[in-house]
Amino acid sequence: MTLETVLLAVGPGDAERTEELAETVVEVAKPADATVVLAHVFTKSEYDDVLSRLEFDQDQTEIDPADVARRHSTIRDLQKILDEHGVDYEIRGAVGEHGPAIVDLATSTDADRVVVGGRRRSPTGKAVFGSTAQEVMLSAPCPVTFVRNDDHGG
């Protein structure tokens, strides 16, 4: 199977792990010369918060989630790293519950691989992922790479 499209889906909890996520995507996408779809997924309340924080004109009838994603610091940090490595990318934004929205993006972009971040739930729960990552792993139309947050918390 050729690798043409890699979906990197991020959300509010991913700001601390942009480097790990970017490194993983570069490792996967660069050798295959694949395009990375950088997608920021917002729940409705997160989206409303970001709109006011980034000072979007809330009276505007249609605000494209991709425009909001483009201005988000996590996406900008990832863009810098992908630019440094010469990896092609496009930016998407989605509003909805994280798991289903990521699966929908994987389907609509015809992704060959999905990369998501997450954290271990507890020291003993090594096999248990966050509900979003678990949902994506079980429902995505392609292989999923899980990038764990390595703060072991003591």
Automatic annotation (TrEMBL):
The UspA domain covers which part of the protein? 5-148
Could you tell me what this protein is called? Answer: UspA domain protein
Lineage: superkingdom: Archaea
Question: What's a Pfam family this protein contains?
Answer: Usp
Signal sequence region: none
- What family name appears in the similarity comment? Belongs to the universal stress protein A family.
